[in-house]
Amino acid sequence: QVQLVESGGGLVQAGGSLRLSCAASGSIFSINAMGWYRQAPGKQRELVALITSGGNTNYADSVKGRFTISRDNAKNTVYLQMNSLKPEDTAVYFCNADVTYYSGSNYRNLRSWGQGTQVTVSS
Fold first, then answer.
1. What is the pLDDT of residues 35-53, one digit of tens each?
2. Are 26 and 81 in contact (CB under 8 A)?
3. What whole-number distance in Å separates Cα of residue 93 and Cα of residue 76?
């Protein structure tokens, strides 16, 4: 019904940059918020950045000043520009969206997750 597809992950050296993207598709009525989470081995999944439909943003303290989240509402896509990457940023990054979608004549709310994309930062 609702799909999130991430791209842009990969291997980068410390100090480098990556740009992640996540596109939502399906019978979408609206997306209230989209964000990025990450999970490193042995760590809990944590919120990296969030952007609401109104454009308000929130960042984890560990990425403030280095990462920037943005969205293209027309494309139902969210981006995460990651600069000055550190080895500590190595994790699987997951896209998440709070979605209202069509189901027959009804609207349903769903928190949808992408499959995750690996980001590896070498020292």
1. 999 999 999 999 999 999 8
2. no
3. 18
